[in-house]
Amino acid sequence: MATSPSSSTQQARQAIADRLREMLRDSGLTARELARQAGWNETKCSRLIHGRTPPSDNDIRAWCTICGVPEEIPNLIAASRSAETSYLEWRRVQRSMKRMQDLGLSLFEDNHLYRFYSSNLVPWPLQTPSYMRAIMRRFADFHQADVPDIEAGVEARVARRRFLDDGTRRCAMLIEESVLRNRIFGDDVQGEQLHHLLTGMRQPNLSLGVIPLAGRRVQKLTETFHIYGDATVSIELVSAIITITQPRDIALYVKCFNDLASSAVYGDKAKALITAAIGALEQA
Which residue in 66, 169, 222, 252 is deepest, having the highest Cβ count within 10 Å? Predict the structure, then answer.
């Protein structure tokens, strides 16, 4: 069952409150003593550790410093800032494909390194318009949504490629070999997409790695995730998008991406897998 945005936000707030309480307990201080050192009213401490009041950045800095764990400041500030926006249900935006494509546009504008992993689809930088259109139609059908602006959504996604026209930006993509063998959108769409991979992967600031079905050294994931710079991870679930901004969690996804990359093949070996998939499709 999907979690509602409000309950998810409350859970995120409570997790922060619980961590503040743990710090206070581990420090050996009382709430009264912490409040005195911070120059607060004691009731403010109570509101913070019970999750009734979200802490400000300055509250977190003061709390961590007084409790003797200043190294926790970046993670807690990131968690607090993302509590309201970390979970976005598809149903809140699914009536407009254009709006969905515009979600997080600032992530592309503000970062110069994009890292994408997908176990089920070709990532958007190398998608053909027909492949994009098929994805959006299937999404609308699955969610039983009336989406009148699919063509506007396709145009918006194609326009997003302008970020990769900037030579200062780099994009690294990893896909499972099974993505090459998928036929969920029909042979014509898949065939065009596979041929496009062979030409699109030549772009100098774009890297495509394919993780072979045989000989892999890391576990296949079911979730698709995108890493923008070193500050944000976006995870696509069936019901929602989850945005992660905590440094330690981002570090885990970077490590995961690097582990997956170590099992991928590139260049001529990747082309051979794509060519083999084209051959299998044409012979079917």
Answer: 66
Kindly report each contact of residues 139-144 with a partner whose C-beta sits within 8 Å and lies 24 or more positions away, as own/partner. Answer: 139/90, 139/94, 140/94, 140/97, 143/90, 143/91, 143/94
Q: Where are the domains of the chain?
A: 5-82, 87-283
Question: Cα separations (Å) of 41 from 31, 36, 102?
Answer: 10, 8, 43
Kindly give, in sequence order, each residue whose CB lies less than 8 Å from that of residue 149, ignoring residues fewer than 6 positions away.
Answer: 96, 97, 98
Residue pLDDT, tens place only, 23-55? 999 999 999 999 999 999 989 999 899 888 888
CATH code of 87-283, in short, is 3.30.870.10
Contact 92, 6 (CB under 8 A): no
The Cα 283–Cα 273 span in angstroms is 15
